[in-house]
Structures are given as structure tokens and as C-alpha cells.
Amino acid sequence: MATLIKDATSINEINDVLKLRFSILKESSNTLNRLFGSTGKVSDFFDVYPNTQNVIAYKRGDAVATLRAVPYDPPKKLGGQVPSKDNSEHEVLNEIFDYSEANDQLKGEAYFIDIVLIRKEQSKHSALIMALFKNLLNTLASKKVDYVFFNVTGELEKFTEELGFRTLGETFHSDRLKKDVTPSVLEIGPYYDAFVAEIEDREILRFQETFYHIVYEPGEICMTRGEKGTTAILIESGEVEILIDKDDQVIPIATVGKGNLIGEIGLVTNERRTASIMAKVPTSCIAFDRENFMDMMSKKPNLMLDMFKIFSKRLQASNKELAKLKKG
Amino acid sequence: MRGNFYLLFVSPDEHQTSIYAAKIKERFGRLPFQVDFAIDGAKALEKFEKHFHHLVICDVNMPVMDGPSLVRDIRKIEGSSVIFLLGEKRPEIDEDSVEFIKIPIVNWTEFIAKVEDVIPEEIKIEYGLTKRDTALNRRLNEYCEQYLKDHNIEIERAGEKEISLIPQYFYDESDQEKVLTQTASEDLSASSPGGVMMSPLAKALKKKFLIQGILEILILGGLLYYTITLFKGGPVDDDSFAEENLFINLKNIMALLTIFSFLGYFFSKVFEKIFLKKEKK
């Protein structure tokens, strides 16, 4: 089943985020007392920071995973002890390792990834976890954030390594998390450059505000012929197969991989899908739908030019193919 | 933002409309439907101008403005909405995306299939709506299953545990999961992305503790004041009438009750703090 990953910016989405985090709390005032008594701050769970960036993953309409990044605030106290209550707001994870030294060397705006929650059913899906992180990092990149701090734990190490996080200090054991954590940093600039380099149609990046990620499982139908679809998908990783049904048979006609855009016509016109698409491997895509797209167009009409560029490239490509077929 | 599917019912017959709405809800209950109702053409246009509606279901025969004229007016605003005209006789209207449905509806499955056809596919996929049993869907399913078999692909199974970077003491020890549900309150409409956001729970709890705190102070203060004034009241008069005696005795009883309740309250708070502190560890 497709898992949808979106920035949680609307109230409904923030509520979904909070419900998901709260689903691990017992429904009792006792726990609430512990909640308030222990850190003295509700800010661990409630999104009271300005510029908090939440990302949430939905599967079949239910929230299944969330990440959060908050603007980095250097701790006022160092040391191996759990800091006292009047300390920095990030005492949940920022407890022993002091990032302020690193912060002095790296200039610019920093964020801190401090809440990660991925339900059991999704915790093995590497494509989903990568897509979650990428969504968060891309949004931070568009906000012109310079780097991100994160206390990485064992299960997430392979993902953060692939994304380009580098370690800042030695792994220490966190009593609060009951895990070993490794303080790490990622510079958003190089990460984003690498991300952009893999996209052929750069014009698409102009629509970044309307993006959301979708992760398809292998053998899943992403689009069906004859359906009304209003989203276009750009394949970020993985492969899909284009299928047509001819004479009661389903025939694959092409395989499309990373960097390609599919379904762009449905974005603009009311035409129904002309072919069906099936994902061959866990595929992570960037999607944008007509509602957001039209919204953006009305705000920035010169984006229409970018869309035309994409379409004319497509037309040129198919004309070339046609010419080849005619010759051969 | 998660996309919504906007549906507009236009009919003076509210009873019929509610039947259609109920049938639609039966099948599409989980989907993010935004349903609007309008009694006549004018109100329908008002609603339509506020927001684009994917599907408009309206009667052919309506007082003031009839179905076909409404269709014309809607088309002036927006060309891509699908319009279902419900009536007994097919009107002379030949337009794209306008479908005539004969009432009374006999075949509800067909009606629902027509509505389903209008819903954008991505909403159906997002919310996991089971696909209709059409020939194409069956063929595609077979193809996909065969593909997975041929390539020995197994869907990644669930992990053993949640991945979580939230402090352990927030977990329920008995491994049960109970959802603390809170619904969004109306006064949150002012929040903007990037601004300070307070969840409804946070607001409610903060208020609750504040009110509780104030009440506690008032009660304590009241109790103290009452106790002090009672004792300040002075010695009992010797030549008192029966009534006054009773009154003075009552005063003493009240004083005792006050002291005990004050002490009891004080000790319960102390107990709570000690008890909770132990639980923390």
C-alpha cells in the first residue's frame, strides 16, 4: 500500500502528529503528571517552538511515522549529568553532547532533529525511512537552513550514513532513551546539491512547495488506465513499469527509473490516464497534485513557462522516438 | 495538504438528498469528502464560487433555476467539474462531463460506481479504498501477483519494534497502546506554519492547571482565614442563651472541621509528591 509523506503544516496534520506521539502514552493523569513533572516542559511533545518542522507518513489514511526538526538552541550547561530544569529546551536528546562547539565552527542556521517515531509495521521499510528524512531535509533546505544536528541511534545509522551525516563525537549511552546515540551533523547545502543533481527536469524544483513524497511497494499499481488522476509523479529512487492492456492482456511497454516524470498530463487536463503503472521495487516518488499546482500557478504565473519547458521536452523526446520508429 | 473531494448536492428535496448522501457515505466513509448542500441554484452557485467542487449532483426540475441553467452557470465559472443531473426525463443538454441519471434510482451499485469514477485516483489510493472488481483491475492484479512470484519478491515484513527517539519513560510499561484523542478546536484557525503553535491539548492542560492552581490557593486561603477568624472570635460568653450556645458549639465544630480538612489536604499533597517521585524512578 502506498505510504504518503507530507509536511505537517495544517492543523489536521499537526493533530495527527500529536495523536501518533501520544499513542504511546497511557491514558491517565498519572502519566500526564510524569510528563510535566519530569522535564518541567511540555515542549517535548507539544509543538510550541516557532518554525518547528514536522513530517508525517500516512498509510491508508492513518498516521504511521513522524519526524520533527526544531531550530537549534545551544545548551547552557555541559557535563555528563542530566541537565537541570532551567536548561535548554532540547534536554530530551541534547543532554550530554554539547553541540555548541560544532555550532561555533559551522556558520549559519541550524536545526535539530529531535523526535523520530516510526511504527513497528513500517520500521523495516527502508524506502519509507529514507523518504521521511529526505522530505524533512528538503523542506529545511527550502527554508535556507544550513545544517542539521541529530543524535543518531543504531537502527537509523545506515540511513544517516547514506544521507551524508558525519559524526561529531563519540557514541554515548543515553539514560533517557535507553539507547546508544551518536551525535552527528549534516550540511544541507551539499546534501541538497546531490539531491538536485539527480533530477533531470530542474524546472520541477520550482514547484517544491507543493511536493509530497509517496513510497510504493513492489507490485503495487500506482496509476490505472481510465482513472481520473490529478497528480504527476517524479521517480526519486526505484523503478516502475508502464503497462497497457491490449486484447485482454496486460503488456509492459517500458520501464522508467530515477529522475523521470510520469502522469504530467493529468496534472493539467481532465484526460484520464492512458496507461497503468506498476512499481517493480520499493519506489520513492515526489508527487504534486493539481490543486496545489494550480494554486501555485495563480500565485506565480511565470511557473507556467517552466511547465511548458517540461512538456516541450517530452514532446521533443517522443518526436525523436517516432522518427526512429519510422526510419527503422 | 491532504486533498479533499468536494461534492455539492443541489435539490429542494432534502429527504432525497439525505438518502443519496447516506449511500455515498456508506461506501466512501473513510475518504476525505467535503459535502455541501444547496436548496436552489442561487445558493449552489454561491457555494460553488467559494470552492471548486469535483462533483455536483443536482435535480433537473427545480423552482426558480432548473438543472440545465445551473449547469450553464457553473460552466461559466469552471469547466472541469462533473455534473450529475437527476431527473425523470432527459433534458436537452449536450455537454462534456454532464451525466443524466434517471430517478428513482434502482441500481445503486451503478450510481456509486459513477461517483467513484469521478474521485481522483490518488485519494482512493491514499485512503486504501478497495478497488472495484472490473476486468481491468482483475487483470492488473493477476499481472502484479505473477510479477512478484516470478521475481521472488516478498513484501518487507514489519520490524520487531517501533523505532523511536522519544524518552523511554513515556512508554507504557505494560506495552499497551491507548490513544489519547483530542480534536482540533475552532480557535486554532489563527495559527500559521512557522508561527508558535499550541496544540489544543496543550492549551487545555495549561488552562486546567492554572484554574486548578487558582482554586487551590483560594480554598487554602479561605480555610486559613476562616480558621484564624474563628479562633480570633474570642472567649465564649457565660450568660448565653441556648441559641447562642448552639451557635458557639457549631462554630467550634466548624473550626475543627476546617482544621482537619486543611491538614488532610496538606498531607494528601505531600503524599502525592512523595508517591509520584518514587514512581519516576
Task: Please tell me about this protein's structure.
The complex is a heterodimer of chains A (328) and B (281). In chain A, β2 (53-59) and β3 (62-71) form a beta hairpin. In chain A, strands 1, 2, 3, 4, 5, 6, 7, 8, 9, 11, 14 and 16 form a twelve-stranded mixed sheet that branches. Chain A contains nine helices and 16 strands. With 328 residues, chain A is of the alpha+beta class. Chain B is α/β, with parallel strands linked by helices and 281 residues long. Helices cover 50% and strands 11% of the residues of chain B. Chain B has helices at 14-28, 41-50, 67-77, 108-118, 121-126, 135-150, 200-232, 242-280, and strands at residues 5-10, 33-38, 55-59, 82-87, 98-102, 163-164. In chain B, strands 2-1-3-4-5 form a five-stranded parallel sheet, with helices on both faces. In chain B, α2 (41-50) packs parallel to α3 (67-77). Chain B is elongated and about 95 Å long. The two termini of chain B are 42 Å apart. The model of chain B is unreliable at 172-199 (pLDDT under 50). Classes of the chains: A alpha+beta (328), B alpha/beta (281). Chains A and B meet through α1, α2, β4 and β10 of A and α5, α6, β6, α7 and α8 of B. β4 of chain A pairs antiparallel with β6 of chain B.
